[in-house]
Write a structure and sequence with these properties.
By secondary structure, the protein is mainly β. It has strands at 7-9, 14-16, 26-32, 35-43, 46-52, 69-71, 78-82, 88-93, 99-105, 109-113, 118-125, 130-137.
Length: 142
Amino acid sequence: MNCQSIVAFNGTNLNILGGGLTGNEVEAIALYNGILFAGGGPNNTKSYIASYNAPLAINELSNLKKELIVYPNPTSNRFKILLPTENAEIFILNSLGQTILSNKSYQKETEISIEESGIYFIHVSTKDKIWNEKIMVEKNCR
């Protein structure tokens, strides 16, 4: 695979992204079947490809609209989750990755209460898709 460069296109303008160590920049990225591939190298005849099979911050590069809404964030203990669909499973994990709450929701809006301050991770799954979000619970928050 010969890599030329990474660019960003917003529908009007093309932005050539730069940076990295000279001759060893990441020149191309692609998400395929849940695996992130990155390629680059010192020149087009000596390129490298690396793959990362790890959880990514976004589910799809092509769909950046917000589908899962959590508010208020931060919160003192109660917050609402606006789900992208009905019939979803909700898991709340603490900063150690331990599930502290699991709930099945059959409505698009649900309310959750967490008593301990901290950062929590919200994992929502349906038969078709998975969404992730985080929330900060601060007891002194209004």
